[in-house]
Amino acid sequence: MTALARACRLATQNSLPALRSLSTTSEYKVPGTKEFFDKNEILGRPMSPHLTIYKPQLTSMLSIMHRGTGVAYSVLVYGGAMLTLCPGGFSSYVHLAEQYAPGAGLMFAIKTVVVWPLVYHSLNGFRHLAWDMGKGFKIPEVYKSGWATFGVSLALSVLLVALI
Is the Cβ–Cβ distance between 123 and 154 less than 8 Å? Predict the structure, then answer.
């Protein structure tokens, strides 16, 4: 056996921790944890508080909407980029959509539904920036800014669609 192979073997034998110490559960660390989880399983309790037991609040709903609108627009941007790779390119799909365009009222509603998430996500992003600066953390201020963000995003969306 070469000196390098022997050194590598010794290094791996002494430096790897036991797999049991890498456990992500707490049953090895806190006495009584196994009994706690067994009791909760028998009683049919969830592992942690779940959304179904909480009363929806403005703050949690706005947070979920912020994440959802961010994901939705990411999908929309990447989907639009993928359409440029399809046969005919993006413009052929825009032309196809124009051929099947509904009446003006329904088109206005569809545009508003498409524009609102972007406006809401952008305005709520400014709200988060204010929080990053330490402003508006009191509960009344959080609710006031939440309702303001929601209302202004609706009004601005309708205004933008009317101008387009």
Answer: no
Cα-trace Rg, the chain? 27
Residue 88 has a CB neighbour count (10 Å cut-off) of 11
How many whole angstroms separate alpha carbon 94 and alpha carbon 130?
38
In this prediction the pTM is: 0.63
Judge contact between 151 and 127, C-beta under 8 A.
Answer: no
CB atoms under 10 Å from CB of 161, counted, come to 19
Q: Which amino acid is at 110?
A: I
- Read off the pLDDT of residues 113-153 as tens digits, 9 standing for 90 and up: 889 999 999 999 999 999 999 998 899 999 999 999 999 99
Distance in Å from the first CA to the final CA of the chain: 77
What are the respective helix, strand and coil percentages of the chain, to the nearest 5?
A: 75, 0, 25
Counting other chains too, the contacts that 54-60 makes at CB distance below 8 Å and 24 or more residues apart are 58/143, 58/146, 58/147, 59/142, 59/143, 59/146
Kindly tell me the burial class for residue 126, based on how many C-beta atoms sit within 10 Å of its own C-beta (0-12, 13-18, 19 or more). Answer: exposed
pLDDT in tens, 2-28: 666 665 565 555 544 544 455 555 445
